[in-house]
Amino acid sequence: MKKTIAILTAGGDCPGINAVIRAVAKTAINDHGMDVVGIEDGFLGLIEGRWRQLGYEDVSDIITRGGTILGTSNKSDPFGFVVDGDVEHPERVDVSDTVIKNFERIGASSLIAIGGDGTLSISEKLRGKGLPVIGIPKTIDNDVSCTDYTFGFDSAVATATEAIDKIHTTAQSHHRVMIIEVMGRYVGWLALCSGTAGGGDVILIPEIPYDIGIVCNRLVERGKRGKRFTIVVVSEGAKESGGELVVKKVVKDSHDRLRLGGIAEVLAAEVEKRTGLETRVTVLGHLQRGGTPTAFDRVLATRFGREAATLACQSSTGVMVALKCGDIVTVPIKDAVAELKKVPRDHHLIATAESVGMSFGV
Ligand code: F6P
């Protein structure tokens, strides 16, 4: 009997999602003769019963397109679906049985869930209720364990690097300290890689709480060496040693309720107060999630998608596709979501950045 697979994209979007959808659907149709159903807006579509058939033409010509043709949502945890209340007291209900029933209505033998740690954690819980699921790791944060890279990360690094390059020239002209805030939630991969690629002078990441005195000394010291500008790249999740995360807002109906943001402004005020150096802030924000995927992400997305469709044909469940030392492998989803993949203090790139004169503020 002809198999059907269902795909959903959940959590924050990023470049490369459409490339994955295309690869899953084309492999399923071409190699395995399966039917493909796309669920709309992530788990919300499974809660509300919204999906559509995906034919070959629907996934044609989308490899370069940013966003997701299926839509997404980072507010629809079926195990704690917010139905009422306010930010402080959201009223949550467990609608996971509805998700299971709707999945049965589709008649699919597998669900391919494309998402970050939130989506993958929900997928693992649904697997515990009998839903056959395969995960594909997606996020600009690169914080999913058991894979060297998530797709979307390389594109976000490219966007952030291009922005840093542009800020570099105006920093030179005006002899200013320029602070660029990048995303990444609780991990510093995006700041570390874009800061290194963009030739930043100071990189501040969540894994290495910084000393504001050391940061300011570095800026003043550069001035004494004749360098009249400084580029500081700061992760939204960075914080001063002994300090707190800077939270922009709390959202009531998300899996992860904190939205970080604002550390660059806090830092700029402190730098100006302590050093008198003219300082400006640029927050890159959602720019980092948009646009065309890089060639690396298109290839990774295509490899991930092809592997996931093949696993679905073999009726595998509870596994995530991953990149390990250049190879596509499969790992248990539960291992991938056990902890966030943070930047290890002894990572080669940290030592490398230090060797070329960058400071982590410690
Ligand atoms: O996880 C991806 C991400 O872009 C993070 O880097 C950022 O903290 C968060 O999502 C922003 O979420 P939202 O789109 O809900 O503002």
Order of helices and strands: EHEHEEEHEHEHEHEHEEEHEHEEHH
CATH C-level of the largest domain: Alpha Beta
Low-pLDDT segments: none
Fraction in helix: 25-40%
Assign the CATH architecture of the largest domain. Answer: 3-Layer(aba) Sandwich
- Helix-strand category: alpha/beta
Considering the chains and any ligands shown, give keywords for the structure.
2 domains, alpha/beta, four-stranded parallel beta sheet, Rossmann fold, 15 strands, 362 residues, 20% strand, seven-stranded mixed beta sheet, binds 6-O-phosphono-beta-D-fructofuranose, elongated
Task: Write a compact overview of the structure shown.
The chain is α/β, with parallel strands linked by helices. It has helices at residues 17-32, 43-48, 96-106, 117-128, 153-174, 189-197, 212-224, 263-275, 295-313, 333-336, 348-355, and strands spanning 4-9, 35-39, 51-53, 81-85, 90-93, 110-115, 133-137, 177-182, 202-204, 230-235, 247-250, 258-260, 279-283, 319-324, 327-332. A seven-stranded mixed sheet has the order 3-2-1-6-7-14-15, sandwiched between helices. Strands 9-10-8-13 form a four-stranded parallel sheet, with helices on both faces.
